[in-house]
Amino acid sequence: MTTECKEKRTIDGAHERSDQDSSAQSQFRTEDESTSQDQETSSKGILGKLLQRRPGGNPNLHNEEPPNGGYGWVCTVAAAVVNGHAWGFNSAYAVFLAHYLKTNSFPGATPLQYSFIGSLSVTCLMLVSPLATMLVGKYGIKPTMFCGVILETLGLITASFASQLWHLVLSQGISFGMGIGLLYIPTAAVVPQWFTTKRSLASGVAVSGAGLGGMVYSLSAAAMIDNLGLAYAFRILGILAFVVNTSCILLIKDRNKAVGSNQSAFDVGLFKKYEYILLLGFSVFTMLGYFILIFSLANFANFIGLNSSQASLSSALFNLAQAIGRPLIGYFSDTTGRINMASSMTFVAGVLALVIWTNTSNYGVLLFFSFIEGLFAGNFWATIAPLVAEVLGLPNVASGLNLMWLTLSIPCTFAEAIALEISTSTNSYLGTQLFTGFTYIAAAAFLLILRGWKIQQNASQPPPVFAKCFIKCFHKAHV
Question: Got a GO cellular component term for this one (predicted)?
């Protein structure tokens, strides 16, 4: 009995020691696993910090959803006011052009040379886009835009002292154009960064400022020229540009870091994208027609025998209609589709030019055409940034717009020159009117092809054979 008790105690002790050993091993394994997990977590934390420190390395930061409103509306309104005091001033060049042609302000200058002043300012706006993009990437949006304020103000003030045509080329052409370029290019890429489903509406509101500013300053510039003289008109506009634009710059904020914007000035790889080429085709033909309209209406009024105040009112109505039409186009673009809206509005603008403008011979019809055409003709400015975002993706908006502005410098330079050359050589505006209408229709055709591409992309189908041939021919032409 005693022996059995001893054996039982021995067996129980062995089991107890075994359980202790097993518990110790389990504890060691748990500690090892915990240590391993801590090390893994630590390494992930270190890697995360490194990614955050490396520019563009935080994937979560770049996938941050736009607020779709909020402070974005403040930026949108500020951008609208800036556009009104940049593009709006440029739209008022129609009044200056009509004054130059009517009074022969600079003896010896030809109508073609006068037309190049307004075109040159737009060309400089487009050509400065790479510089604007690089400056925003390096120094930020506010310093870049303030440089634009200085150049715009300098251009307007120095234009007031111009006594020869080349003075006007340097001031109202180059300096003013570069200034509004450094103002417009950054804001064009900022507004889409703040919105998703309301992107087209916000862009429409932002660019409507150009139409409203064009209306206000077409009328006020004409009044100032008649009552104060050309020099004081330039000086007053220069002071307004400095005060108003500087105030708006303080309010504008970009989200380049949040969306991971590509601030490359020359991302030529975009030219390999078939859809981007179609977007460029739409843009080129639209700009040919648009700048003929915006610069020619006042001169056309003089051509049919109207006075300067009537001419300025026709130009002002065209710009007022743009201020109304652009937000509406932007609003309906978000619901009906951006490509659908842009293509249909562009086609309507072409038809109106062919049907109504060609039959305009009196003041009443001219005012009607100016207003109804203005509702549709400026749809490019309300839709282009959202279109680029939709076709290329939000991070490529700045780069895509950048290359587009460079491409558009060509039609912007020669649009009004072509119009004046046609009208003066034939002593009729019919050729100019037909040219304008058909350029809009051609632009709409490019968007219809782009719509077909978009439908195929949504259906996950390969691009059609003609698309491949088109892009291949384009690349060969640029080798």
Answer: membrane
pLDDT in tens, 295-339: 889 889 989 998 888 888 998 899 899 889 888 888 888 788 889
In one-letter notation, the amino acid at residue 442 is A
**Single residue among 241, 261, 281 that ends a domain in this structure:** 261
309 and 239 in one domain? Answer: no
The confidence band for 355, taking pLDDT boundaries of 50, 70 and 90, is very high
With the C-alpha atoms ordered 279, 284, 287, 289, is the resulting torsion angle positive or negative?
Answer: negative
d(C-alpha 370, C-alpha 87), whole Å? 18
Structure tokens at 378: 């400026």
- Rounded Cα–Cα distance for residues 8 and 21 (Å): 20
CA atoms within 13 A on the CB side of 430: 4
Q: Does residue 406 form part of some domain? A: yes
Label residue 50 by pLDDT band (50, 70, 90): very low
Q: How do residues 123-138 score in pLDDT, each as one tens digit? A: 898 889 888 888 888 8
φ/ψ region of 140 (left if φ > 0, alpha if ψ in -120 to 50, else beta) reads: left
For residues 318 and 370, the answer to whether their CB atoms sit within 8 Å is yes
CA distance 199 to 207: 12
Same domain, 228 and 285: no
What is the structure's pLDDT at 259? Answer: 59
Residues contacting 14, CB < 8 A, separation 6+: none
The C-alpha atoms of residue 182 and residue 242 are separated, in whole angstroms, by: 14
Check whether residue 140 and residue 124 sit in a common domain. Answer: yes
Q: Which residues contact 122 (CB under 8 A, 6 or more apart)?
A: 90, 177, 291, 409, 412, 413
Q: Tokens in use for 182?
A: 């450094």
- DSSP 8-state code for residue 461: -
CATH number for the domain harbouring residue 250: 1.20.1250.20
In a domain, 86, yes or no: yes
Domain that holds residue 376: 264-456
Distance of alpha carbon 2 from alpha carbon 4, whole angstroms:
5
pLDDT digits (tens, 9 = 90+) for 15-46: 444 444 544 444 444 444 444 444 444 433 43
Residue 332 placed within a domain: yes
53: in domain: no
